[in-house]
């Protein structure tokens, strides 16, 4: 959700970097340059302390205890649900379902909503730039329900082929599953326009916001989506916790796919009845400490402000794109005009894994491979890319170090 800008003192980047203990360590004797933020972000002290404090001073299970510790843990867990609701502009707190991550959130929709609403001949539309987590669950749903998977293609610059929308979406379309920002290309998609086109055909819309949630404010009302998924660890929070947003009227019609504790109203051998939202879709003991840590991460990011975060990361991406693009033989993969801070590239005939190994020796954490986006790699005719992905705590000096590492690699493999 877009929040009104407020007057803030200038952000002290040195102080911000000091909030992240990992940035103070050495790798192979070199200062760490962490450029793998699209895979997972580093964690600030407030998040680390929130998780540790739960285990150190307030550990208890939630929802079922009347004692102080259980009540305290429940309050902190549910306070994060409200923080998430506010962060993404959802109408009601029960529209926020906690999962183990984006992958689990999408699979929950595929198995629950999908099995209840899809049938033979129905069509599910994804884009060519989707992460495997937004492809494979729908392939599995197609096999279970007899559906057809259709694909929106991408252009040479890494943007969606928007004229193809009218051809690929059809009266048989039941779901559009689309990433808000590509993890392999950085492309930011016009999701609100795509959602409007899907709704004209009576289709539901699921948005994968894993690569967007840390970089800009979200508003599920403005996006016009029925579902939105993201992972806490992409937002400076712990691993193993994620969010599924669903419009309440849609969630109400979704049967649970996991049975057990905390998702029931009553149980008898003759049958069971289920709890209200959100509990009905959160069976068993959740990642309580992870959810509490996610709440701390949201507070941290909101305190910095997305206005500063967006501007900082735009400058970093622009500087990195210009620096890497100027290297003889370098090829930037994905040149969309509107991008998340992700730079994928190749350098001549050097395999990205070799480039990543040389960079690691210089203390640079760089992702190499297909980034769980093999259709993207095939589209651009490469087996893999090197990917530098930035966060607000990165620096121009780290970009310079990356460029030096690339030249070093070119010397080694000359």
Explained architecture:
With about 425 residues, this protein is an alpha/beta fold. The protein folds into two domains: about 15-40 and about 305-410, Aspartate Aminotransferase, domain 1 (Alpha-Beta Complex), CATH 3.90.1150; about 50-300, Type I PLP-dependent aspartate aminotransferase-like (Major domain) (Aspartate Aminotransferase, domain 2). It has 14 helices and 16 strands. The chain has helices at about 15-20, 45-55, 70-90, 100-115, 135-145, 165-170, 190-200, 220-225, 250, 290-305, 305-325, 350-360, 375-380, 395-410; strands at about 25, 30, 35, 95-100, 125, 150, 175-180, 205-210, 225-230, 240-245, 265-270, 270-275, 330-335, 340-345, 365-370, 385-390. The strands form four sheets. A seven-stranded mixed sheet has the order 4-10-9-8-7-5-6, with helices on both faces. It has a five-stranded mixed sheet with strand order 3-15-16-14-13. A two-stranded antiparallel sheet has the order 1-2. Helix 2 packs antiparallel against helix 10 and helix 11 runs parallel beside helix 14. About 45% of the residues are buried. The model is unreliable at about 1-5 (pLDDT under 50).
